[in-house]
Amino acid sequence: MSTEEERFLQRLLAMFRIEAQEHLQTMSSLMVELDVAVRAEDGGEVLQPLIETLFREAHSLKGAARSVNLETIELICRSLESVLSALRKNQMPLTAPVHRAVSDAVAGLENVLAVEPIDRPLDLAAIKLIGALDQLLTPPEEVGMPLPPVESLALSPLGLQLEPVMPLPPLPDPLPQVAPPPLPALEAVPQPAAPAPVTAPAEHPVAAPPAHAVPEAPVAPAPAVIAHDIHPRHQEMGDTVRVSAGRLGVLLNELESLLGLKQDATHRVESIRALHAEVADWRRERARAVLGLRVAARQQNTDSTGELARWLDMNTQDELFGKQLQDRLAQLEQAARQQQRATASLVDQLLDDVKQVLLQPASSLLDLVPRLARDLGITTGKQIDVTLEGQSTEIDRRILEQLKDPLIHLVRNAIDHGLETPEKRRALGKPERGQLRISVAPYEGGKVLLNIEDDGAGIALQRIREVALAQGRYTEAQLDAMDTPTLRNLIFETGFSTSPILTDLSGHGLGLAIVREKVEKLGGHLLLDAPPGGGTRFQMLLPATLATFRGVLVTAGERQFVLPTRHVERVLRLPVSAISSMGSKPSTRIGDEAMAVVRLAETLGLNASTAAVDDWLNVAVVAASGRRIAFVVDAVMADIEVLVKGLGPQLRHVRNIAGATLLEGGQVVPVLNAAELIASAAASAGSSLRPADPDAPAQQSLLVAEDSITSRSLLKGILEANGYKVTTAVDGLDALTQARAGQFDLVVSDVEMPRMDGFDLTTRLRAESKTAATPVILVTALDSREHKERGVEAGANAYIVKSAFDQTSLLAAIRRLI
Amino acid sequence: MTLESPPADTAAIDLLMQQRARELARPILDGAAAGERVEVLEFILAHERYAIETAWVQEVYPLRQLTPLPGTPAFVLGIVNVRGKIVSVMDLRVFFGLPARGITDLNKVMILGDGEMEFGILGDVIIGTRMLPLADIQPPLPTLTGVRADYLKGVTASQSVVLDAQRLLRASAVVVDQPSA
């Protein structure tokens, strides 16, 4: 986080503190009133409004806490809200324990707020509070599940999949070995044979929890934060040392400079060898010359005291010196050669070892899945079992970091689109609980295979066809000609979304294209297929170490560039005559495929050395994301081993450039981003008619309606930072008034607001001719399916769940809509 | 050995001690310069003298190899290799929008950093470092306008322009973050 963001966060936290204190004060006084009412044995007409207000306060506080990322407060509020909601709907009587748990929670919230720093992680006190609240809501039969000692934890909000942190009751022998808990739904697609799923509780022990209860350490999903806090894993502490990742990175950088040393040593050996050879030649020449002189001297029979004789005597000395010189050079050469070999093997070994140090078990990545799945399960009203496998597989930590976003995206997709609701699954004869299985396993050639698999509805080919047709991407005939995998792979195309409404979960259409690009950037492949039993399976084949990869060194516009070899399908020389101008764009046929021909220098905006007097062109066929273009380069220099480095913090992203690498001798060469290069080439190919400045859009004006001052400031700040002009409104009515008076390109509105909520606002905006077509994005902390549907009914264009600082989904939605 | 010293000696010693104490207590510098001082690195860029706080200067390098990157804004000259790490290098003249005045050398890279941001700036000649009393920094002359004025601390008596390195490092304007095509 940059310091600027940090300061912004500090300001927000200060604002949040004030807002939270107000909420808590209200809640405390409500609790007192509630107390009085209960003692007076008042009826529902007195209690109900009090509970209602308490519920709303808890809800608002949760939303505010969430927007500034205060997990502890958010989680307590969430559980509190659930209890109050149950009370409100009369699903639960207000008994003494309930009353106690609620007052404890309110007091607990005050405690959290009173002690600095307020953004500290979840502590034991908070966990107890949450546990106590959640327990109230748990049906008694579930309390009697296995793992009695962790029962209270298993009920905590992070709980569904907590790893047992205490000794477990002995297990039936033999312990089920690595054999992964099979995916019930995948194995037996229970068409008719499945037992009537009405008896859900009876099925529970078979289908769901035991899969997690199998306490085979690496298989059992690792816990979220809590388990670490309560029981640090002592066994890992023994002979390990904590080293910051930054230091390791520095170490690796320095070691890579040793590669230059290794190369230098080779050069040194080479120059000594050359010198040695020169000296040997010189001696030979000289010996030949001296021999000639001796013969001449003898023939002329000169006086032995003459000049020549004296010179020949001296020459014997020189000859001796020459021999010594050559011997010494030979020794030096040998020593240098030995040293070069030693250096080379040491450097290689050392680099290899350090790369091993950078390996980390995959659990650091996979651990986030159970929590994410639980949250999404609540949001979408789906029941999900998560099975993780192979968490101990070791992968370079830098790869793991880069995989986080793609993994989150695929898990969201699986839950949002793939898995069905319990009702639907029941109707289909599937077990109610959807299965999400993620496994990591070593694969041949130092690679690892990451599988993300669900037993949901799978990918609807019909829907893909419809969208492809509707978006005008393909004609009916083209679609008819596609086989199933090709059709299915259309979802990787940028801008392709089959979701009818934008949600923050998915539906941006950018998603899968970006996931694929990220995976490819790491040197991996992303595959999609449909397992025979139904559902969807994504497979990522990734390198285990972010080691070097191969690159093709080329020159274009008198500069050197590296093209990643895995994106270079072939390198060839084409006669100029093979280039035809189809339409206005040059193209050629390579093999039996026609492809566009573009000068690399031109795509990069360099002065192309157009004076290609040569009749032959050097061409590199670059392929990425299913597209290929033939790039004309000045020369193809070499196939080299490269290690891609970032461009430093100032250059966050430079178009077409993935990073840089060091050549032997320390020369820096940019590494090109194949996917972006192709996109740029495609964009520039027909751009001659377009105005030159696409980067300066007119400032768009947004109206933001949000009652929480914290969230409002946050949204305003973020949107302004992204170049929008922002007007704020404190509630729906205010927003409606402003929308009538002003001119806005888009409205971002909270759902729950006093006076007029987001749904009403949307309906009213739609009803007025001036704003009927203005896009509306509903942003809310309340993530429920009914609300989403209500949003659609009211006419909202997108429904997005607030989450802390991650506003990328909101920004993406705005960009998509205006 | 006597425990008692002659009283005259005691007084003399006291006097000496007091004198020494005064000596030690005297600030090394006197007068107006005794206030807070900062260490600055002075350099010449486009025939002008600049000073930058050394606290933000990580190192100074002779510029040997510079790799330009296609598509970056003009103020980014390119990237260099600093012990295996890639560091971007910017041209303050372009960033400040200064008119090109004659030929300059631009052969020294000063690498600035604050732990998060890091980049190099180019200079023609490095003059050296010196302690600069804060009191000597005067508000910038009204003639120093434009973008540059935003990143200045002031001007010294010797007409060195004092750059605000911290502000420069935190400026979002220096960051390049281009969208894909």
Automatic annotation (TrEMBL), chain A:
Residues 5-116 form the HPt domain. It is an enzyme of class 2 (transferase). It comes from Amantichitinum ursilacus. Residues 548-683 form the CheW-like domain. Keywords: Coiled coil, Kinase, Phosphoprotein, Transferase, Two-component regulatory system. Residues 701-817 form the Response regulatory domain. Residues 322-349 form a coiled coil. The gene is frzE_1. The modification Phosphohistidine is found at H59. Its EC number is 2.7.13.3. It holds the Pfam family HATPase_c. The modification 4-aspartylphosphate is found at D750. Residues 346-546 form the Histidine kinase domain. One of its GO terms (biological process) is chemotaxis. Involved in the transmission of sensory signals from the chemoreceptors to the flagellar motors. CheA is autophosphorylated; it can transfer its phosphate group to either CheB or CheY. InterPro entries: Bact_Chemotaxis_CheA, CheW-like_dom_sf, CheW-lke_dom, CheY-like_superfamily, HATPase_C_sf, HATPase_dom, His_kinase_dom, HPT_dom_sf. This is Chemotaxis protein CheA.
UniProtKB/TrEMBL annotation, chain B:
SMART domains: CheW. GO terms for cellular component: cytosol. GO terms for biological process: chemotaxis; signal transduction. Pfam families: CheW. InterPro entries: CheW, CheW-like_dom_sf, CheW-lke_dom. Residues 37-174 form the CheW-like domain. This is Chemotaxis protein CheW. The lineage of its organism: Bacteria, Pseudomonadati, Pseudomonadota, Betaproteobacteria, Neisseriales.
